[in-house]
Specification:
heterodimer; A: 283 residues; mainly alpha; B: 295 residues; alpha/beta; Rossmann fold; 6-stranded mixed β-sheet; 27% strand; binds adenosine-5'-diphosphate; binds magnesium ion; transmembrane helix (chain A)
Chain lengths: 283, 295
């Protein structure tokens, strides 16, 4: 299982793996699908945010970024899981896994190559979608330049969120025996992380009625979920959600550095989980 | 190059390999024969370090299976080799070259060596089974491997490609590579290998050169006798134990009695128009060993 290639040859090998994976994904239209999804939703949200933006005292782009943040919480994990669920289980089913595992390259570099390609696709799709939204917002409201920082922040945090779910997707893919089981696991994780988790928290907060759970435990549970940490960070950084509900108020109490730390720690954690899972695979 | 001592592998209650021992020396081509389920693929995957084993010793290029040293010098062609259908032959081989620290620019060259020069820029999804098998072979040639593990390499190849394949193996062996290849038919490997190892139900039931296996099996030869015109009935009377097949008589004889049987037929003089001596076929020899145990 050790790295077996000479160090000088390791980087070219990982890049070659990434290149092949990128080719496969573009030929299977994954890049077009991901970018198309992002662009369509970004345009819809830009158009929908056409109310009297001046009333909020913010520029149009900042408003768009706020709605893009809510969208990304659902869409970015979904795209990342779609890209990653087949990574190991698909190779096992196709019968391509045993051969590559006899090559003098470790399992870490194999995963790294795949992750590099999938991250590139995700980043390109995000830039296409958010870029479109940014251009549209500036065209509609010339003062939107003020929201540019928020847009860039949204892009890098989305990449971090995507990296987390890529890693989790690889882990699911390695633990599943078949691609269909991996797809089921990916859908399950998505539902759990971005839908059910928040519903359960909401129910707990309502039941708690402003007690110790809401003030003490609730912020931690938000930090523990990468999707919630992503939302927290972007909303808090934009200081957009502070006025709304009691939930948002509690969320607003979480310092920015904590949500940033969660956002950055999760990709590493998910990557480690993916590697541990992949190392257990016997072809 | 490769040394197996009492290699044992269990799949739950099923003994896939039971105390199998043999070795493959540099420059030697060894055929691993056995019916489906005999344990050939399991043995190869253990040698490659892909799956663990339960008992015995395995030494690959003097190292543990799957270790850095072993992987650097071992090439593998899996049974029913598969590749990603969206990549072209050239892209796939280019990737494998990079994984062995070599320049991907050599891909066309390698594909040319296995007769795939013209298809190099087409997607593997459009290849026939025989063409995929050649891509598999091309990747096994990367980086001058010292040990080649080829699992049913000639399945899906037409007779001409099969001959080209064995010619490639001859070159590799001449350069000192050790080769272990599996097959479920002795007729496929014939005289193209130096030694034969026969597995049956996970047990090693025979090993040696083809001629030594032939001698050990000691199967009877068949004398095929064509009677002279009008002499058929008289001839059958003179050789009561012979069997009539078409217009001929077939007389079976143990290896030790071969000369006596010949003399007896020769003594029949003018009754006999022609005589052929048919040695036991490769399939007969193979069945003799592979059925002896457990089948
Ligand atoms: N992963 C596995 N789990 C359980 N049994 C297996 C597994 N792989 C192979 N076997 C069994 O081990 C035996 C040997 O299989 P294999 O090595 O593939 O045979 P061969 O390659 O000679 O056809 C067969 O009985 C097969 O069913
Ligand atoms: Mg087999």
């Amino acid at each position: 299982m050790s790295a077996t290639l000479a160090p000088a040859n390791l980087a070219p090998a990982i890049l070659a793996l990434a290149k092949a994976e990128f080719r496969i994904a573009t030929r299977n239209r994954w890049l077009a699908i991901a970018a198309g999804l992002m662009v369509i939703f970004a345009l819809i949200l830009t158009a929908a945010g056409s109310g009297p933006s001046g009333s909020l005292g913010t520029d149009r782009l900042s408003v768009t970024v706020a709605s893009l943040t809510s969208l990304s919480v659902y869409l970015v994990p979904l795209i990342a899981l779609l890209l990653s669920f087949d990574a190991v289980a698909g190779e096992a089913e196709r019968g391509t896994l045993p051969l590559i595992l006899t090559y003098p390259i470790g399992r870490g570099p194999i995963l790294a190559g795949k992750a590099l390609a999938h991250l590139a696709i995700l980043t390109l799709a995000l830039i296409a979608g958010y870029g479109t939204a940014g251009v549209a917002a500036v065209l509609l409201d010339p003062t939107s330049g003020a929201g540019l920082g928020a847009l860039l922040r949204l892009i890098w945090t989305s990449v971090a969120l995507g990296a987390t779910f890529l890693g989790l997707g690889y882990a699911i893919s390695a633990r599943a025996k078949r691609p269909s089981a991996a797809a089921g696991g990916a859908v399950g994780l998505w539902l759990l992380a971005v839908v059910l988790y928040d519903l359960a928290l909401l129910a707990a907060v309502v039941a708690d009625n402003g007690g110790a759970f809401t003030t003490q435990v609730f912020p931690l549970t938000l930090l523990a979920n990468p999707a919630d940490a992503f939302r927290l960070f972007n909303l808090a950084a934009a200081q957009a959600g502070a006025a709304a509900s009691g939930v948002a108020a509690a969320a607003g109490a979480v310092p920015l550095w904590q949500s940033a730390a969660s956002l950055l720690l999760w990709p590493a954690l998910a990557g480690a989980l993916a590697l541990v899972s992949f190392r257990k695979v016997t072809p | 190059m490769l040394n197996l001592t009492s290699l044992t592998k269990q799949y739950g209650a099923l003994a896939a390999l039971s105390a199998v021992s043999f070795e493959v020396a540099p420059g030697e081509r060894v055929a691993l024969l056995g019916h489906n389920g005999a344990g050939k693929s399991t043995l190869m995957k253990i040698v490659l370090g892909l799956i663990p084993f339960d008992a015995g010793q395995v030494s690959v290029l003097g190292a543990a299976p799957g270790s850095a040293q072993a992987r650097a010098g071992v090439a593998y062609l899996p049974e029913n080799v598969a590749f990603h259908p969206a990549l072209t032959g050239e892209e796939q081989i280019g990737l494998f070259l990079s994984l062995r620290g070599e320049s991907p620019a050599r891909a066309r060259d390698l594909l040319g060596r296995v007769g795939l020069h013209d298809a190099a820029r087409r997607r593997i999804g459009t290849y026939s089974k025989g063409m995929r098998q050649r891509v598999g072979l091309a990747q096994a040639l990367i980086g001058r491997p010292r040990l080649l593990i080829l699992d049913e390499p000639t399945s899906g190849l037409d007779p001409v490609s099969r001959r080209d394949f064995y010619a490639l193996l001859d070159d590799l062996a001449a350069e000192g590579a050790a080769i272990l290849l599996s097959s479920h038919a002795l007729t496929e490997v014939e005289a193209r290998t130096d030694r034969i190892v026969i597995l049956s139900g996970g047990h090693l039931v025979a090993r040696g050169t083809l001629s030594s296996l032939r001698a050990k099996a000691d199967l009877p030869v068949t004398l095929q006798i064509t009677p002279a015109p009008g002499q058929e009935a008289r001839l059958a009377e003179a050789l009561p134990e012979a069997v009539r097949v078409g217009g001929q008589l077939h007389l079976s004889s143990a290896q030790g009695q071969k000369l006596a049987a010949l003399a007896r037929v020769a003594g029949l003089g003018a009754m006999v128009a022609d005589l052929d001596l048919i040695p036991p076929s490769l399939e007969d020899i193979y069945s003799h060993f592979s059925r002896r145990d457990g089948q």
